[in-house]
Automatic annotation (TrEMBL):
Residues 1-31 are annotated as: Disordered. It comes from Vulcanibacillus modesticaldus. Belongs to the peptidase S14 family. One of its GO terms (molecular function) is serine-type endopeptidase activity. One of its GO terms (biological process) is proteolysis. InterPro entries: ClpP (IPR001907), ClpP/crotonase-like_dom_sf (IPR029045), ClpP/TepA (IPR023562). Pfam families: CLP_protease. This is Translocation-enhancing protein TepA. Residues 21-31 have a biased composition (Basic and acidic residues).
């Protein structure tokens, strides 16, 4: 007696069945469920749309030369730098969108990221959502154009140092020079004056445990720190406009040459 399966092929029950180890192994592998995807990626599915815009998120605390505790949500600068280099070299990437919601962190690591973003040849736009505090301020102003949400805030305060200090005068001079680097970078990449920025930095009575100022979205634009109040759609529209302008400029240069 011969049997027929769904594919209309004959099967003789008396014939020995040849095992297929590859098929058995594939069948035994656990299938990824929706819950596994949510747990691993924080989303139900991965968007398959290929975009010409590279999106970089800087969230939590910016981690520098010291590894922070595991319960801290961090952005590791050694992970961000290779991504920026790859985005600069990739011909399919025509613009970079940087999204910030950070409490700040390591000063030198934050300045390194800000310098890299500022030196990119491709159009860049930053948007502050939630907060762009402390060393997040230089990163927020490092792009070609910056946005801030209406309810977002930016904390401006002097450079601080935690831990054991050996040689107070020398350490104070080092911190003063580092702070001067931060101030000069911010004033060079935004419309705020150095006098106004230092006035906000050394303001007393506003922060409970520190001197400085907590600047809300519209005030950041009023002071010249950020270019415009807006959201994600505004940032993408501005970035796409700059991408088109960049293409036109390259075409015109090619014609002239």
């Amino acid at each position: 007696m011969r049997l027929e399966n769904d594919h209309n092929t004959s099967i003789d029950p008396s014939e020995p069945v040849t095992p297929n180890p590859e098929k058995d192994e594939k069948d035994n592998q656990p299938k990824k469920t929706l819950a596994d995807t949510i747990q691993a990626l924080g989303q139900t599915n991965v968007p398959a749309h290929e975009s010409n815009i590279f999106t970089l998120s800087i969230i939590g605390q910016i981690e520098g030369h010291v590894v922070l505790p595991p319960q801290n949500k961090t952005t590791k600068y050694e992970h961000i730098i290779p991504q920026l280099v790859a985005a600069e070299q990739n011909p399919k990437i025509e613009g970079i969108l940087i999204i910030l919601n950070t409490v700040g962190g390591d000063v030198e690591a934050g300045l390194a990221l800000a310098e890299m973003i500022a030196s990119m040849s491709k159009p860049t736009v930053t948007i502050v959502l939630g907060g762009g505090h402390s060393i997040g301020v230089p990163i927020a102003v490092s792009a070609d154009y910056s946005f801030i949400a209406e309810t977002a805030t930016m904390t401006i305060h002097p450079v601080r140092l935690t831990g054991l200090v050996i040689g107070v005068p020398q350490t104070f001079e080092y911190l003063d020079k580092m702070q001067d680097r931060v101030v000069k970078f911010i004033t060079a990449h935004s419309k705020i004056s150095e006098e106004k920025f230092k006035e906000l930095m050394f303001k007393t009575g506003e922060l409970t445990r520190d001197i400085g100022t907590n600047v809300v979205g519209p005030d950041a634009v009023k002071y010249g720190l950020i270019d415009q109040v807006g959201g994600l759609g505004d940032a993408l529209n501005e970035l796409n406009r700059r991408i088109e302008d960049n293409k036109k400029n390259k075409n015109e240069q090619g014609v002239v040459q």
